[in-house]
Amino acid sequence: MKRKIITMLLSISMTCTVLISSGSVARAADDAAADTGATETDAAEDENSSDAEELTLEELKESFALTVETSGLSGEELYEKGKQYEEGDGVAQWYAMSMAYYEAAVNAGNEDAVAAVEGLNADKETMMDNSPDGQGDIFAFFRTGVTAGQAGEYEKAYAIFYDDAFFFEDPLYRGIGSLGDLLRDGTGVEQDVEKAVTIYEFNAKVLGKGNGYTSLGLLYEAETGTYPGIEKSIDKAIEYFLLSYQDKQLKETDFKGPRYAADYFDTGYSHDDGTKEEPDYMKAEEGYIIASEGNGRTFDGTACYKLGTYYEEGREGVAQDYEKAAEYYQKAVSDPNVHATMLGIPQTYLALGRFYENGLGVEKDLDMAVSYYKTALEAAQENLELVNAAGNEAAQSVYDEAAADLERLDE
Questions:
Q1: Burial (0-12, 13-18, 19+ Cβ within 10 Å), 312
Q2: In this structure, is the dihedral angle defined by the CA atoms of residues 378, 355, 392 and 221, taken in order, positive or negative?
Q3: How far, in Å, CA of 173 to CA of 166, rounded?
Q4: Packing angle, helices 234-246 and 257-267, rounded to 10
Q5: C-alpha angle 378/382/385, rounded to 5°?
Q6: Which end of the chain is more exposed for a tag (fewer CB within 10 A), N or C?
Q7: CB atoms < 10 A from the CB of 91, how many?
């Protein structure tokens, strides 16, 4: 069966193709998945399915090889182009593109480019030395791409995600899925849902990453017409969300998929045939707990926030328990990678302020309450300043409430 190879996304009238390859691209995602004890779900049959299982990581990388303009350019001019991309001078900073121009300059006999290539390789080595288990500097670098996307700077986001995947070679392959998201939405690049599906299936079936299934679920969750060739199917979306942590073939389960599935169990939903499912809070609680436990490296802070609301308020079949609520609220913001723009995080800081002010499940501490209210205010402000932050929708309410709480305690 013929493989479907993702075509090159950057088109610049070109004469020289350069594949950035300063390290092994065949590394497997070896991190063990968290044992959720869940039962295996039958794989969803997707009529838009590509031959992702036949596509290798090397082929995926080759399909994204950068083609640079060399016609009529001297070695010095090629070197200057590389320097422009390395420094982000008038263009999005893009290390892989910089390397491509530097290597073209080396081939043209420019001696300065030799040192520049060595410098970029040294920068890459330093980055990865400071990124144990795919965390540290490489995660911080990846997050700058997320922030750029939230701010609507999609070309910058594309360059960062490309560098994460194909220049620095993030061992957790975060950038690959994010490139798929930009293709899916047509932000920064021409929309190509079929290519996005190929990437998501590659993540799930080749790399064994559950977040590939989660991304497929998000496609089917959207209204028909949002993504060409995809018809809305809540049943299929939920099936993919469940696969993201129940598929026994995964090397790494996802912690967002169980939360997305739990959100449906939390509110109730309609099947594709029109029949309705009422809220099932105990089933939702189970999904949120799985998401809160994470994948062995990190966990879903939003799921922790949801559990905090469950135990603070109580639900049918879920008893009110302030101590458990406080525990989950605290866990939601305990991860060093937690970010204010993550869904539910500003509300979590606000809730912790309320708990410490009133001694709910914790010892009353007004200083701690003030500290959390201030953090909630700052987190809400950060969301309000961004275009596409996950927590943007509720940010104004959190900001207003935290400001009022601080004013009241200052009296």
A1: buried
A2: positive
A3: 9
A4: 140
A5: 135
A6: C
A7: 15
User: Which residues neighbour 379 within 8 Å (Cβ) at sequence distance 6 or greater?
Assistant: 340, 345, 346, 349, 391, 398
The share of the chain scoring above pLDDT 70, in percent, equals: 85
Whether residue 225 contacts residue 269, with contact meaning beta carbons closer than 8 Å, is answered with: no
Give 83-94 pLDDT, tens digit per residue. Answer: 999 999 999 999
Determine the distance from the C-alpha atom of residue 246 to the mean position of all C-alpha atoms in its chain, rounded to a whole number: 20
- Put simply, whether the predicted model's pTM sits higher than 0.90 gets the answer no
Residue found under tokens 């997305």: 260
Instruction: Give me the DSSP letters along 160-206.
Output: HHHIIIIIS--TT-HHHHHHHHHHHHTSSS---HHHHHHHHHIIIII
Q: Which ranges of 280-344 would DSSP assign to H, the alpha helix?
A: 281-293, 301-313, 322-332
Closest CA to 178 of 163, 362, 305: 163
